[in-house]
Amino acid sequence: MQMNTSLLTLWGYWDEIYQRCTRLKYVEKGNNIFRIVPLRYRGESLVTSDGHFIHKGDLIVKIHIHNYYFATLCKGVTDELKVALLLRRHIMHSLPKLAAYLDEMNKREEIKGIVGTTMLHKGVQPLGFSISDVPMSALFRFKRWYLRLLLRLIHPDGKRRVQTWSQEMPLKRVYMSKELLLNRYGRGRKETSGERF
């Protein structure tokens, strides 16, 4: 499936409205796959891969993949592997800028980490992310439905992929401590040759 140009244009209008109606902020508009919002964490306690804790009430940076932006990048791409590689490349490109953005934020010292909810979680653990299940509350059920719709629009074989997946879609929480993000992707990070996502 290739996304219809008219549908993509309509999505762009909706995305502008959505952006204005939410507290989401661009890390770097048009050059970063993440949008973020600082908020108090409301879920179960999390332990990051480097041993830090994120508890209910802690200040976090909630990360959202900018799906419309990614859809524009995928326009004309019909191969499933190419879509996956494109996403990975843009996540790798975006993480250092996300680290720099967090490092300049107000209440930086209070922030415990970054947390997101996604179906696109395969291969993120080598990047430093941890993964956990989410409770199937009404909110997460709605988000699962919404992400399934986006998958159908973005993915070159989205209709078949959604139909073949079970009702229990692999919606997961992905998270990383502030320390790991800054140490690995911040300005003072050590370059690692041959690192791959």
Count all strands and give the number. 8
Order of strands across the widest beta sheet?
A: 1-2-5-6-8-7
The overall pLDDT average reads 79
Share of residues in helices: 40-55%
Q: What is the count of DSSP helices, taking H or I runs of 4+ residues?
A: 6
Number of domains: 1
Order of helical and strand elements: HEEEEEHHEEHHEH
Largest sheet, strands/sense/barrel: 6 strands, mixed
Measured by DSSP, the beta-strand proportion falls in 15-25%
Structural class by sheet pairing and helices: alpha+beta
Q: What does the overall shape look like?
A: globular
Cα end-to-end separation: 26 Å
- Rounded radius of gyration (Å): 17 Å
